[in-house]
Amino acid sequence: MGTPEIIAKSAGCFCGAVKLQFSANPKGVVNCHCGECRHLSGSAFTTWTAFAAEAIVIEGSESLTAFQATENVCRHFCRTCGSHAYTSDKRYPKMLGVPAGAFDSNVPFRPSAHYFVNHRAAWHEIHDSIPKFGGESGHVPTDA
Q1: By C-alpha distance, which of 57, 51, 93 is closest to 74?
Q2: 128 contacts: CB under 8 Å, gap ≥ 6
Q3: CA 88/CA 90 separation, integer angstroms
Q4: Domain ranges within the chain, ordered by starting residue
């Protein structure tokens, strides 16, 4: 049995100053509907890919700036074009979150869940059948 093919080899910012190279596939893919993610993306939700930090090589880190969004969460952006490159979370120090839209190719990511569905944009309806979680923690199973 061989090594599985890596489906996402690289991601980066809009201007190309920051690149992320991957040596493994994401550990998870989810849609987050919380207000912070909606503000961050300017959309109804953000699709996140979760990678082991050791599986990512960041090129152009001198072009990054950081924003401490919460006590635990730090957002890392390209200081030239403003693109969100990745997120780190003190609660998960061995993981990094990369917005799915940052990937250089159209990779076949399939989100496994929706989180914070009670916080979703009122104008956005969720019509797929993947599990939905909500409540104040964003992680309570719901039928919403």
Answers
A1: 93
A2: none
A3: 7
A4: 10-142
The closest of 52, 55, 51 to 23, measured between CA atoms, is 55
pTM (2 d.p.) = 0.88
Contact predicate 50/27, CB 8 Å: yes
CA 10 to chain centre: 14
* Class of the CATH domain delimited by 10-142: alpha beta
Cα separation of the two ends of the chain: 41
Alpha-carbon 25 to chain mean position: 13
What number is the average pLDDT over the span 33-61? Answer: 93
- Per DSSP, what are the bridge partners of residue 96? 51, 88
CA-CA-CA-CA dihedral for 41, 79, 110, 57, to nearest 10: -160
For 24, the 3-state DSSP assignment is coil
Q: What is the pLDDT, as a whole number, of residue 51?
A: 96
Per DSSP, 122 falls in state T
